[in-house]
Amino acid sequence: MNKLDQKLLDILVCPVSKKALVQIDQELVCAESGLAYPIRDGIPVMLPEEARKIEE
Predict the structure, then answer these.
(1) Distance separating alpha carbons of residues 14 and 20, to the nearest angstrom
(2) Range of the domain at 26
(3) I need a labelling partner for 40 at 20 to 30 A (CA). Which of 1, 4, 18, 27 fits?
(4) CB 33 within 8 A of CB 14
């Protein structure tokens, strides 16, 4: 698993909730909105329609 650069993680926010994201495996997860955005080929896909709804 490749970790994204911390500087990138510091500036990326969830496009739905505008809250911070946490990288878990190959996804960026937002606890506030309950969405997990995929990371494909090292590039975060920050489109709400591409996000997976996470179980709570």
Answers:
(1) 6
(2) 6-53
(3) 18
(4) yes
Structure-token match 């698993």, residue found? 1
The helix or strand, by DSSP H or E, that contains position 39, with its residue range, turns out to be: strand 35-40
Bridge-based pairing state of the strands 27-30 and 35-40: antiparallel
By the 8 A CB rule, do 39 and 51 touch? Answer: no
- CATH number assigned to the domain comprising residue 12: 2.20.25.10
Predicted structure pTM score: 0.91
User: How do residues 34-53 score in pLDDT, each as one tens digit?
Assistant: 999 999 999 999 999 999 99
The tokens for 49 are 């329609």
Q: Which alpha helices (DSSP H) does the chain contain, by range?
A: 6-11
pLDDT of residue 55: 80
